[in-house]
Write a structure and sequence with these properties.
This protein has 246 residues and is α/β, with parallel strands linked by helices. The chain has nine helices and six strands; from the N terminus they run βαβαβαβαααβαβαα. Helix content is 42%, strand content 14%. It has a six-stranded parallel beta sheet, sandwiched between helices.
Length: 246
């Protein structure tokens, strides 16, 4: 029996795994989904190519293509991988990734740092409200602390000094793009730009009440959609199916 999982969830920063966990657990009720983590160290340069090489080292050991899934920057890494190694990817599910993958909450944060004459903590408080909506003072403070940790440790392609561009476009494997309808980072017009890159069978879905981390807020709705898409993609490819519950 093959030890290759049905799906692989990419996580570019362990500090953010708590927001993936609810959906990850629901997907694992009906499929074998594993998590591939990357941890940036202080001595390493921020190079997405390094992450892609390490990811390929893992995926090429699998006996057949697998479904990739990732949120925000992790989804961008999955998108870049699917472009480079389409034969290894059964399908790609992107959560809160724009048609222009350089548009992210990190880029939004650094833009605010340039525009607002205030310190980092105040800008992070603003980012917490934009990403998660109004919160209690205790929870808001915890989110601000978490966002600071992510900015200090994530391999984001942006900084105060420079915002990198990433190429737009689609992929060869089947593609599911999911976003939150109330995401202020990826507004509806930005999300609609995906239409020019979608193939027959690809899907673009907006979570009606969702923000940037909509998959954390609505894991049941997201898991049902993703599992149905994976089943459809496997049927089209002739590869092993994800069996859906009746």
């Amino acid at each position: 029996m093959s030890d290759t999982p049905d799906g692989l969830w990419l996580c570019a920063n362990p500090h953010l795994r708590r927001f993936d966990q609810r959906l990850f657990e629901r997907l694992n009720l009906q499929a074998d989904v594993r998590c591939w983590n990357y941890s940036q160290t202080a001595d390493e340069s921020c190079c997405l190519e390094t992450v892609l090489v390490l990811l390929h080292d893992y995926i090429q050991q699998q006996s057949h293509p697998i479904h990739l899934i990732g949120h925000s920057l992790s989804g961008t890494i999955a998108l870049l991988y699917a472009r480079q190694y389409p034969e290894r990817v059964k399908s790609l599910t992107l959560l809160s990734v724009g048609a222009n993958p350089a548009v992210s909450w990190h880029a939004h944060y650094y833009a605010l740092r340039e525009l607002l004459p205030c310190n980092r903590k105040i800008v992070l408080n603003q980012m917490a409200r934009l990403l998660f909506g109004p919160q209690s003072p205790v929870k808001a403070a915890a989110i601000v602390k978490l966002l600071a940790q992510v900015l200090d440790t994530e391999i984001a392609p942006h900084s105060l000094a420079h915002r990198n561009a990433l190429s737009t476009g689609g992929i060869e494997p089947p593609l599911l793009v999911c976003n939150g309808a109330h995401d202020v980072i990826l507004d509806p017009n930005t999300q609609m730009q995906w239409h020019q890159w979608l193939k027959s069978g690809d899907r673009l879905w907006m979570c009606p009440q969702g923000r940037h981390f909509f998959h954390h807020e609505y894991p049941q709705r997201c898991s049902q959609l993703i599992l149905e898409f994976w089943h459809q993609a496997a049927c089209q490819s002739g590869l092993p199916l994800v069996e859906l519950a009746p």
